[in-house]
Amino acid sequence: MSATSSSPLPSVAASDRFRSDTFPLIFERSSPGRRAARPPVTEGDDMASLLGAEHLRAEPPRLPEVAELDLVRHYTQLAHRQFSIDGNVYPLGSCTMKYNPKLHEDVAERFLDLHPYQDEDSVQGILELLCELQTDLEELTGMDEVSLQPAAGAHGELAGILMIRAFHMANGEGEQRRVVICPDGAHGTNPATAAMAGYDVVEVPTGPDGEVDVEAFQAALGPHVAAVMLTNPNTLGIFETRIEEIAERAHEVGAQLYYDGANLNAIVGRARPGDMGFDVVHLNLHKTFTTPHGGGGPGTGPVGVKSHLAPYLPAPRILQEGERFVVEGERASSIGRMRSFYGNVGNLVRAWAYIRRLGLEGLKRVSTIAVLNANYLRVRMREAGYEIAFDRVNMHEFVARPPAGIRTLDIAKAMLDYGVHPMTVYFPLVVREAMMVEPTETESLETLDAYAAVLAEVLETAQRDPAALAEAPRLTPVRRLDEVAAARRPVLRYAFVDAAD
Amino acid sequence: MDTPDTLHYTRSHEWVTKPENGIVTVGITDFAQDQLGDVVFVELPSVGARFDAGSPAAVIESVKTASDIYAPLAGEITAVNDALDAEPEAINSSPYENGWLFKIRVADPAGWEELLDAGAYEAVAQED
Amino acid sequence: MPYVPHTNDDVERALAAIDVASLDALFDDVPHSLLDPRIELPDPLDEVALLRHADALAARNHTAGPMFLGGGVRQHFIPSVTPRLAMQSEFVTAYTPYQPEVSQGVLQSTFEFQTMMSELTGLPVSNASMYDGASSVAEAALLAVRQTGRETVIVSRGVHPESREVLQTYLWPLGIDIAVVDLEDLVTPTPSVGDNVACVIAQTPNFLGALEPMPALSEAAHAAGALFVAVVDPLSLAVLASPGAYGADIAVGDGQVIGNPMQYGGPSFGFMVVTEALIRQLPGRLVGQTVDVDGRRAFVLTLQAREQHIRRSKAKSNICSNHQLAALMATINLAALGPHGLREMAEGSVRWAHRLADTLEAAGADVVRGARFFNEFVVRVDREPREVRHALALRGIRAGVGVPADYGLGHAITLATTELTRQDDVDALVSAFTALGLAGGQTVGASA
Fold first, then answer.
1. Mean pLDDT of residues grouped by 10 in chain A (501 residues)?
2. Fewer beta carbons under 10 A from the terminal one: N or C of chain C?
3. Which of A302, A330, A358 is the last residue of a domain?
4. What is the total count of domains within chain B?
5. What residues have CB less than 8 Å from C342, skipping those under 6 apart?
6. Which chains pack against B, by 3+ Cβ pairs within 8 A?
7. Residues A329 and A390 in one domain
8. How far is C364 from chain A (nearest CA, A)?
9. Looking at the structure, do residues C228 and C250 belong to the same domain, yes or no?
10. ipTM given for this complex
């Protein structure tokens, strides 16, 4: 250092506060006596006299004590360490990472202060909205009745499979039908749901054209099959062209056909699972109907059925009686509640706003351009040197892979240094080194061109200088993590003892 | 790949010691641990549990996979390697010694002879 | 078209690039008979018209006036800073943190969430949140069944009726029996627990607001080798003994009351916090601490081999998403309030409830006494609870969650208070009770 070292330079420890490599936890910013927010205070009797000393806790919870500006900076800086759709292109396959309109947030704010046990006459506005959404979703799926209750896609799946189970039991076939068939490319939630509903799972293979192998499927069918779970287009982004035949075969043996709505964005407004022969469908409102993903949730997973399954719908539904909207009372054969109250109403409001803003023509444009964009990016990725699994005109997504010898993981990590998000990697399991890409309709061609250019450059680096790729990412808030250590000796909460210093 | 010829093997990559007093020791092969990558957790059966040959008896987890381990021969579990709770990486570093999984009192000790020998197993592993 | 950037030129350019003749030709794989069916949707609205329409609907909802509704959802103080921070674009429009290098915002805040839930409940291992309190109760029962290999679940009637309904929905297909324990003097008597019982589930404060004898229930469960599941109100834990303190193996509950708006019941989030022994059985996402290649502390999704995307049909649950954004609201809210703010909210809620109960009782209302209560209590009424709620709503008061008949209390409602309750609200409710004849004595203007 220079001769001015006696000047009051900040200590290393103090300057550490602003270095990103020591980004603190909120607990490490805590200082006893500080706080950001103060609720109204009511003086009165002490807790021991009101509640009984035996019910009280001994030590207060060690929650952070921070000033408001420190709180604001902490969570603002954390936000800056987070990739998002609003930040840049985020084409995760099967996740439909489309733009979440700001307008929906303004609409949702109008419905925050409603209690689920309010008198029905005091909630006619929200009930009308929910009733209208039920009808709109029935129209868009070609189903007879929709329940808005399930809290997420997987939750809707469980509701759907439980209804199928109740249906078979009512027909005296509950014991006989033990099996649910899923394609090997299915989302992991499908077999997990079937198991949770008490079923054995049989997987059927994908054929050479990327569609379900109908012959293998037929061989797996029989009077022991309760349900067949499919998504269409499937996880390879390919429309099951023989869907009507599949439905017919399934129905011939008395099985019910379940539609996983994860990929509805490919066909919304243009084709309906109900018309294809599906008996049950769940929707992911956070995908097709653009309620925010929120860093992992809350999702929302309404479930729709044909009339023969309607008696089993989860309670409660919203009904219109003349001019009035009411919450339906008992439905005798219902599978019951999937969660408390009426579902994720905050998200239902947003999905309603989306449908009302776009109308049918707008939604048709959504699916059509989603398919156009996916095909455009497929061709651009092929030009960039990637292999396309099942290279044909695809729907809303497609699956690619790098040339032999190059790992998808390395490509993905290198992309992070360009400020874009990789596609879904290593899914579906039926394609080695899978890269599953779903650009959605809200990305412009210029963005897709730039994304393809990144992919080309990364591949070129991979071929020229593999070592450089293994070092990526370099420019992200943190670099590759030791996931093995995290799993072998899990540290799942802050160790307060360390904070005592 | 290290494949000791004192052991016998299954097509699903378990190794099995020659029965002693009707008891065999079971683990996964060097080839298998290499394919799995870093092992982070092992779910072992309870002592006293009974398994048919080929039924799942344990689960080995790496960061992003979980693999069933099958009982190579029918019988009852007499011991499990509890040390793997604290040190699952032993399966990677010492698959044939410290990384053993469980011991089975087998119903039919002669069944061991029917399993693959080292040469046959290596041929199977090379196909995978 | 809103939100789709493509001009006609863009469409032509893209079609040329992919060598497809028209937009319709992109859908050639869809059988012709299935394409473009007749679909009836309302006409689209522009931005202004949509907001006006939303305003018109919102105007038919009642959102002001004295508020005494509880039953699992309550209107609590949420400082402005909480939603403003939580609803930042980066948090709202991110997805599951699959690429941890660019997802430290979500991952670290979830680690903070797990730590806070662990602190509140006194148990070490919290997941990254679940759908809601009710489904968390059901998931807790499934966990206990997996862990113990037993196939009966004992649940107190004090557990919220809707949670018990969800429990029934989840357990029914698996053939697991549910035994319900009736309340005595508003709380759960010590049940006899057989060696076929996977867990005992009790809620405190219970659906009637009463504080349960959790240590005795916990002991009864453990004596039979069963797990004890505590269903708790996280706000109450600022004051009440933690589940860890009375030996609960699993704590679950709903997080709406610590930082989420009511939103007509959702979304909020559920939480599940367990002992170390149950960590591998825990459903849902978990965030763990680790280091990156440069040795910097960082956070990552961990123990994923429990989950559906790896285990498929052998997963611990089919749960895929969590309720991240709602959990983040709670995380920021708890950090904003700190231990003192949370305690003040709990204390205010408790004091108003006791004040209200005493005042109503003095006015002649039939407050059901029998156990200590937190911020919610039972009042017997002389007519159907729905009628009471409706009559109060006509007077601008939101109050009166009905107590189902199977509680054996006759016509009864619960009333809840929070730190936001004011003396004017209490006065309004008491005079409404009097006017409606609910406080005993003459009925004035009550509908039959």
1. 44 55 90 96 96 96 97 97 96 95 97 97 97 98 97 94 96 96 89 91 92 94 97 94 96 97 97 98 96 94 98 92 91 92 96 98 98 98 96 95 94 96 90 94 98 97 93 95 93 77 42
2. C
3. A358
4. 1
5. A61, A63, C235, C238, C258, C334
6. A, C
7. no
8. 21
9. yes
10. 0.96
